[in-house]
Amino acid sequence: MKALLRSVGFILVCLAGGAHAATLTLDPVLWDPTPSGLLVTGRASGVGSSLTAKVLAGGGERWRRTVRIASSGRFGIAIPPGVLQAGENVTVRVEAAGIAHQLSLSVISPGRSLQHLISRITFGPTPALLKEAKTLGWTKFLDRQLRPEAIDDSVANQAAARLPTQETYQLQFYFLYRMLSTQAQLRELMTWFWENHFNTHLLKHGNRQWELKENTQFRQHALGRFRDLLDVSAKSAAMLYYLDNHQSRKGAINENYARELLELHTLGVNGGYTQKDVVEVARAFTGWNVASWETGEFVFYASQHDTGPKTVLGTPLPAGRGIEDGEAVLDLLARHPSTARFICTKLARFLIADAPSQATVEDCAQTFLARDGDIRQVLANLLTSAEFFSDRSVRAKLKTPLRYVTSVVRALEPERLGTHDLTWDMYMMGLGLFVQPIPTGWPEESSAWIDSHRMTQRLFFANYLPFKGPDPDYNPRFTYLVDPKGYFARLGLETAEAICGWLFQVLAGGDYTPREWEIAYSLLGDGFTLNDKEADQKLRKAISFVIGAPGTQRH
Amino acid sequence: MRRRTFLTSLAVLSGAALLSPRWALGQSGPAQKTLIVLFLRGGNDGLNTLVPYAEPRYYQLRPTLAIPPPGRPSGAIALDGRFGLHPALAPLKNLYDLGEVALFPAVHYPNGNLSHFESQKFIESGDVVARKQGWLNRYLSATASAAGNRPWRAVAVGAELPFALQGQFPASVIASGEGQKFWGGWYYKVNPLPGWWREAYAGRTDPLGKRLAQAVGQGLDDVQRLESLPPTSGTYPDTNFGKSLKRLAQLIRSDLRPEIIALDLGGFDTHARQAQTHAGVLSDLATGLAAFYTDLFDLRHSLLLLVMSEFGRTVRENGSAGTDHGMAGLWLALGGRVRGGIWGDWPGLADNRLIAGNYLAPTVDFRDLLSEALARYLGADPSTVLPGYASRLLGFLA
Known about the structure:
The complex is a heterodimer. By secondary structure, chain A is an alpha+beta fold. Chain A folds into four domains: 2-108, Sandwich (Immunoglobulin-like); 116-337, no CATH class; 338-393; 401-553, no CATH class. In chain A, 45% of the residues lie in helices and 12% in strands. In chain A, strands 1-8-7-4-5 form a five-stranded antiparallel sheet, with no helix packed on it. Chain A has a three-stranded antiparallel sheet with strand order 2-3-6. Chain A has a two-stranded antiparallel ribbon with strand order 9-10. The longest helix of chain A is centred in the middle third of the chain and has 15 residues, at 337-351. Chain B is an alpha/beta fold. Chain B is built from 13 helices and twelve strands. In chain B, a hairpin with a 5-residue loop joins strand 3 (77-78) and strand 4. In chain B, helix 8 runs antiparallel to helix 9 (207-226) and helix 10 runs parallel beside helix 11. The radius of gyration of chain B is 23 Å and the shape is globular. At the A-B interface, helix 12, helix 21, helix 24 and helix 25 of A face helix 5, strand 7, helix 8 and helix 9 of B.
């Protein structure tokens, strides 16, 4: 049934037929039709410079517009939000010079759309990803993203492997580059999730290679078992220094790691532990240390370990053991019901809604426990939950600065990617990669990112990003949309309606108001062509406006 | 006063009122006084900030970390024969001698929570549970209609809005750095984007859309207002905190003087090798505050600065020459109306006086300090802001 719902067919009907020189065709639509805005493109020849586009529904005409055709024959029809209704079959029909073509569309609810899934499990759509996802369909696209080992990501991997990581900005760019370029988007998204869940602060220990190593290991286990992720973090030099466990010795314990392990990494603050447990866990991890600054290799120093008997969460750990104490604590925590609930809550907040329902979390926690913390299964559970499909979850989250910047850059595919500016822009919006001093990591709730200052920073970014290249003060380390005309030409988008329609779809998820449309459209103007003398400038202005528009802030 | 004169002056008054644009918009003038709430994030080690050097037990509990008594090298700065300031706080000594610094060495709440995030949430909620709205926001909301709808009544200086200011009342966040402007380049004679964006956001009516519209509108207004902020002649340290305090002084001297300002200083979570890091943040704190106080010396009778942290630290040093999360800790109040000195009972460091043998016991509930600021300084009824709490005023405000 689900598969049927997803398989929205593109039925092309040629009413005129015959061997006319005049042709009119509509392209396959890149998005699932929903009540949000929808862009339908096509090409025409020999029919003049305009056509009439109509939406037919329920036996009558729902909407119509006169659509300009570019001299190349390309045209785009931007059906505004609110025209289509979920659950109905509609026909998009174009007519010109006595011929007509039409396309039948099944309109589905936004929660079940491919674009909702893409917006939550990737760093934002690229033109290529939209095509790939539409070809695969909802279920297969998710399956593919859940099995990154089967994705050939060699191009992105090789490019990333050539990037330097000696300096902080280089390391930040390396991580950002992977987010922007990888085909395995969900794995990269989850790498970020774990990186942030097990937050470490680069400036506290100062060793960039430790962060790189930890990041690589999180990527390796991003969709694997929670126990393995816990192991990566507990033995990471970055973590051992960040939360001071390297200083904790028999008879002279440091509680910092133990407390945050319980409070922030596993059980959650109300997960049922006491101060006594914090102390016992700290004792269990005495001797867990870093072998050398250069390699960041984990080492267990038996001589520093407290070998006395311990009791953690009511479970006795016998005396006389070594590294087994810490391992036993990690085993205990990785399989604890409070951990299942805590991790599921965070994941649901990350993927579904700021305040996920108890039912969603409990169901996810069942999977977590039954599948021994298999994150792939946990994600599959959440992404097929009723709450994920609910229209209430759609576009209900404010993108974090990271999701905002990555989604804008991925959609626009700048020819030159700056190594310095994007991570700085994000930092100005409140999120610094690898430099969050507080062990909670960066919040995922929308409300944490809404204030006058941070929203203004987003608009500064929108204002400047499309203009960096032509600016006389242009810094070659900055991101640059070298050729917006070429970008739209490659996509076959040449009229004002096609271009604005694309920008609002790919950046703002088809979420725009008539007034927003009017502003963006006026920046190009009715007769706009890519050959206009001022085309470059006009396009940059329109891009700028849509990057800063309300719809682009949300997913 | 004769009836005629009285009528004339009344007419002049109402004439002025009608002419003043601010009045015409239904906004009241700049605040007559400002409460500044500074949160030291991470749990400041109160014992090494205000040092109980007269207590031998202090030196037993902290064999390597204790601040030596006054007179010794790197010794504490004696205040009253019992307590002394960490040497890095030397810049505050003058203000203390002026009688305008109150120190509260043992402030917290019953059953102290050892989590940073819980304890910060409690204190900023003005409660011993986490609430949805910060205590300053509750005060601002409760007095919003009387205060009029004026911009910058409440401002956070820094990169984010501290929880104390979060809630329905829309406080502004103002960065301390420069360059908060829209870029016009050579593409726009007048950059139309801010205006268009304002319109676009204002056109959204769903709950998240409305919140974004509010923040964007306020942010765009702030960008304009910041351009006319008066300069200040004070000399501030070249640190983020110094820059924030400079921005604070400019705000207070502006004709949109805020009534409430909140800001943060981080770096107090000193689990390891505390001696250096703690001295560093205390020095930043003291140098900055002294510069600020000097800069605004003429206004100090209309300033109250409350300095707080989520908890103190363990009285015993840990195995890493640091201290772990504790309970009662040091709060400070500065201002022209503050009665200087050391306030509240000192619980002592004897084993039977400590909680769990490692935490300083609170003798002053933090809500009493908030209540006093509310009642005596802001003229508000504490019970509306801190409902259900029966406050006990110490009298540290004249």
